[in-house]
Amino acid sequence: MRIDLHCHSTASDGTDTPAELVRNAAAAGLDVVALTDHDTTRGYAEAIAALPAGLTLVTGAELSCRVDGVSMHMLAYLFDPEEPGLLAERELVRDDRVPRAQGMVARLNELGVPVTWEQVERIAAGGSVGRPHVATALVELGVVPTVSDAFTEEWLADGGRAFVEKHETDPFEAIRLVKGAGGVAVFAHPAAVKRGRTVPESVIAELAAAGLDGIEVDHMDHDGDTRARLRGLAGELGLLVTGSSDYHGSRKTVSLGAYTTDPEVYGEITRRATGAFPVPGAGGA
Fold first, then answer.
1. Which phi and psi (to 5°) does residue 53 adopt?
2. 166-218 pLDDT tens trace
3. How many whole angstroms separate alpha carbon 87 and alpha carbon 107?
4. With a threshold of 0.90, does the pTM exceed it?
5. What gap in Å lies between CA 273 and CA 234, rounded to an integer?
């Protein structure tokens, strides 16, 4: 089985619609794909309706969190999307995304970059707006060559010249909310140093004690030594080890299925989840 547990669609900052994502996942030879858009579940219905036969969909979300001033992301799998506590927190985070992105546009204008809010809105195309949309605007204007090049201290990285903070959930609270909604919580790309400051291993240990289920080890932002270190840490803490592409369509160079999760780990995730179940494809439109 080939299992990719971290993918984005146009419901947040990917370039594939949810329907295109599941069709492309099947074409890439995946057996299981997770839809984990940022702080939203809006893509579920379209993805399920288009789900090809032979492909299973894991519903999820990537939650924006912050601890001790460090931004981090929590992958939540197979939770009840209507559970009130987690739903309210997702809406709070999502609602803060627009003023935050508008603030980044204003800061870029102050730096002499002629980006407009209308341009960012067009790029987001109704999705949950985020830094990648602003970064794409910088690419369109020729300010940077790629989206990744916008995530530096010069531009949009944490603490960068055009960075603006947004509401982010305390990860201990995120774990509590995900568990309360019957879901499974996995710390996304915990050692992605290219994105800025990372959470120390002591905090990962505290998160494990608070109910964290796993850490995403096999990821494009982790080199071989980092993956080995994280695997060892997961073993020490009794955490599941996942792998995934963090696919964003054409917004990133990584392809679907570039990194995958072991079938036994996937089975354990589905056993732990009580809020929702994986959706088997029946041959969507």
1. -60, 140
2. 889 999 999 999 999 999 999 999 998 877 789 999 999 999 999 999 999 99
3. 31
4. no
5. 20
Question: Each residue of 66-87: b (16+ CB within 10 Å) or e?
Answer: bbeebbbbbbbbbbbbebeebb
Show Cβ contacts of residue 77 under 8 Å, excluding neighbours closer than 6 positions. 5, 34, 36, 58, 59, 60, 183, 184, 185, 186, 269, 273
Rounded Cα distance between 205 and 203, Å, is 5
Phi, psi for residue 269 in degrees, rounded to 5: -60, -45
Say if CB 271 and CB 277 are below 8 A apart. Answer: no
* Encoded tokens for 99: 């003023």
DSSP the chain: --EEEEE--TTTT-SS-HHHHHHHHHHTT-SEEEE--BT--TTHHHHHHHPPTT-EEEEEEEEEEEETTEEEEEEEES--TT-HHHHHHHHHHHHTHHHHHHHHHHHHHHTT----HHHHHHHHTTS---HHHHHHHHHHTTSSSSTGGGSSTTTTSTT-TT------B-HHHHHHHHHHTT-EEEE-STT-GGGS----HHHHHHHHHTT--EEEEE-TTS-HHHHHHHHHHHHHHT-EEEE---B-GGGSSPPTTSS---HHHHHHHHHH--S---EE-----
Residue 152 has pLDDT above 70, yes or no: yes
